[in-house]
Specification:
With 200 residues, the protein is of the alpha+beta class. It has eight helices and four strands; from the N terminus they run ααβααβαβαβαα. It has a four-stranded antiparallel β-sheet with strand order 1-2-4-3, with helices on both faces. α2 packs antiparallel against α5. The protein is globular. 26% of the residues are buried. The mean pLDDT is 96.
Length: 200
């Protein structure tokens, strides 16, 4: 399914074409393709080059670990995400190598996941990231250490037929994509003042 963004200013096609489907095909992702996605995450920038990310990943072929990830998703997400060929959970290290708190760990993990997502788009795959999972259950299920924080779950795969989704989800899948206008979040000088270049 093709669902490009309707942008106000031209942007790179990889970003314009990227979106978060819930309908996935049953086509598996080749291992070399998956390695490419996580190689892209590997090269994300991070504060002090801490690289504070780990990804817990399972393909559908790895039925036991795939079921473990499905089992920590909230029911709403589990119902559709279980059809994706790959599931993952990003986890952030909240401590620096010297033991001090890493204030930007979540930002850096988000950057790594963004690079993974764009690499996926370049290879014809799509990523749907999810806040809807049980953090403490994930921590227990995967024996995540205390200084590490589960950040987001993600479904990865090739887009499928939206007709396979329940009615309400199908409506959301087919709905137009929308975003806030630039004037609402690009500011200068003081809070709430739109940067001049946005309105010029």
């Amino acid at each position: 399914m093709h669902k490009p963004a309707s942008t106000d200013v031209p942007i790179h096609d990889l970003i314009r074409e990227r979106w978060s489907p819930r309908a996935f095909s049953d086509q598996s992702a080749p291992h070399e393709v998956l390695r490419g996605l996580f190689e892209a995450a590997r090269w994300a920038p991070s504060s002090n080059n801490e690289q504070p990310w780990v990804y817990l990943v399972a393909t559908k072929e790895d039925a036991e670990n795939f079921a473990k990830i499905v089992g920590v998703l909230v029911e709403f997400n589990a119902d559709w995400a279980k059809h994706a060929p790959v599931l993952a959970i990003s986890v952030a290290n909240l401590k620096m190598r010297d033991g001090k708190p890493n204030r930007v760990a979540l930002h850096d993990v988000g950057t790594a996941s963004a690079q993974l997502t764009l690499e996926a788009a370049s290879r014809g795959l799509f990523v749907h990231q999810m806040a809807g999972f049980h953090v403490e259950k994930a921590r227990e299920t995967f024996a995540i250490p205390p200084d590490w924080e589960p950040v987001a779950a993600m479904a990865i795969g090739y887009p499928g037929n939206p007709d396979t989704l329940p009615h309400k989800l199908r409506e959301r899948e087919l709905a137009a994509r929308t975003r806030k206008p630039l004037k609402e979040f690009v500011m200068t000088g003081t809070w709430g003042r739109t940067a001049p270049f946005v309105s010029s």
